[in-house]
Design goal:
The protein is α+β, with helices and mostly antiparallel strands. The protein has helices spanning 94-103, 108-125, 135-138; strands at 10-12, 15-20, 30-35, 40-44, 52-65, 68-83, 89-92. The chain has a 7-stranded antiparallel β-sheet. Strand 5 and strand 6 (68-83) form a beta hairpin. Residues 44-126 form the DUF402 domain. This is DUF402 domain-containing protein.
């Protein structure tokens, strides 16, 4: 399946998740999570990493096609790595974010929105001793990638 091909996903309130069976960036299944309230995409142990979450700040656009909701995900260049199950984290790709803003790949308004959402993600899900991943994600998550089913 092409990396950009539509995949089935489940939506529960402001959480969407989908399974990626095998991908050129990792071996074995990975469950991708999207937190619609802050516009982030989360995946645990991508790229052969061990014990880390990769959090992309993304744009999420909803489109309807023949009665089916399709989410279009757009990378917003700014990423957060959550170490283990938090609360430690680091922010990466600030150079890419700056270049995208400077060259007009994203507007100043979009850049400000991304920074605001990044801060909201950190405050809501990591700062002040928060438990990570949050309960609404951990219900559908498994560190060994043997994910609970929906139903």
């Amino acid at each position: 399946m092409s990396p950009n091909a539509p995949r089935p996903a489940f939506r529960i309130d402001n959480l969407v998740f989908s399974d990626e069976p095998n991908h050129h960036h990792h071996t074995g299944p990975r469950r991708y999570f999207w937190l619609l309230d802050v516009g982030t995409q989360l995946v645990y142990e991508p790229f052969g990493w061990t014990g880390e979450w990769y959090v992309d700040l993304v744009g999420i656009t909803s489109k309807r096609d023949a009665g089916t909701e399709n989410l279009v995900i757009t990378d917003m260049y700014l990423d957060i790595i959550v170490e283990g199950m938090g609360p430690g984290y680091r922010i990466i790709d600030l150079d890419e974010f700056g270049t995208a803003t400077r060259t007009g790949a994203i507007s100043v308004e979009t850049a400000a929105d991304v920074m605001t959402r990044a801060q909201r993600f950190l405050d809501t899900y990591l700062h002040r001793g928060k438990v990570f991943p949050p309960a609404h994600v951990s219900r559908w998550f498994s560190a060994d990638h043997d994910y609970p089913g929906v139903g």
